[in-house]
Amino acid sequence: MESNETSAPEVTQKRAKKKVLTEKDIEELNSVMFRIMTAPDLKKFASYIVTAELADTLSNQKGPFMVFAPSTEALESLSNEKKTFYSNPENRAKLQEMLKSHIVEGNMNKEALLQAISRGKTKLKTLAGITLTVSKAGENIIISDGKGGKTTVKKSDIEGSNGILYVVDGVLNAN
Fold it and tell me: How many domains does the chain divide into?
C-alpha cells in the first residue's frame, strides 16, 4: 500500500544579521530629532521638520541645540490659511524660518534656564536670527518672540545626544 501523505517541505528561516551600531548610529538614535520623532505630542512638528529639510541638522549635527517644539495641538491651532501656506513646497523657506525660530544653539536644562531668568528675563538668539525672551510667570516659563508670539513650556528636559527638547503650547514667529 502506498501512502498519499506528503511531507511538508522543510522551511528554514534566515535571520537578519544583527547590525553593529556605530558611535554615529547611537548618537543619531539619541539625537534631539529622534526625541522629536518619537514624542506622541510632536507628530506635526516632526512632519514640518522633515518637510523643511531640517531633520539632518537635528539628527547629525553636534549642536548642542535647545528646541522649543510646538505641540501638534499648537500647530493645529494655526489658521487654515497658515497651515496651507506651510504645506506648500514653494513656501519651504518660510517654513524653515518659522521652525528655526524654535531652535537655539546652546544647551540649558530647565534648572539652568530658571537660573538664567531668576533675576528677570534672558534673551536667546535662534537659528532664524530672531531673539527670544524667556521669562517666568508664576511657575511657568514663558517664551516670546518680540512679534506678539508667546508660548509656555509644557514639558522640559527631554535630553538628546546633541541638545535638549522643550515642548511648548504655542507657535513663535509664524510669519
Answer: 1
Distance CA(134)–CA(3), nearest Å, equals 83
Q: Which residue blocks in the chain are alpha helix, DSSP H? A: 23-29, 32-38, 43-51, 55-60, 72-76, 80-87, 92-100, 110-116
| Residue that has been written with the C-alpha cell 493645529 in this structure | 76
Looking at the predicted structure, is the pLDDT value of residue 76 above 90?
Answer: yes
Q: How far apart are CA 123 and CA 145, in angstroms?
A: 10
CATH number (domain holding residue 46): 2.30.180.10
Range of the domain at 111: 23-168
pLDDT single digits (tens) 120-155: 899 999 999 999 999 998 889 999 998 888 999 999
Residue with cell 511657568: 140
The interaxial angle of helices 80-87 and 92-100, nearest 10 deg, is 110
Reading the block at residue 102, the C-alpha cell is 524654535
Q: Is residue 79 part of a domain?
A: yes
